[in-house]
Amino acid sequence: MIQVDGKSRKLYFYHHRVRDGLIYREEHVGRKTFEYYKGREDKLIYRSVTFDGEREKDPQALYLSRELHTQKDVTILKMT
Known about the structure:
This protein is 0% helix and 52% strand. It contains no helices and seven strands.
C-alpha cells in the first residue's frame, strides 16, 4: 500500500492469487476510485467511480453511504 498525505492511496494485489484478477486499486479519497484487472474471463479491464461530496442531496441522484474519513452521503457522478 502506498499512501500520499491521506488524500490518495494505491493498493497492489497478487492478481494471480485472487480469483477476481484485481491488480491494484487506486483511490483519490472522496473524489474517485479506480480498480484495474488482469486475466478475467469477462474481459473486464478496469472500473472507475467518480464521487461528488459537495453536491446537495437531490432525489434524482444516486447516493452511496461510505466512510471517507467522515461519515456522509456522497453523490455518484459517474461509473465506468
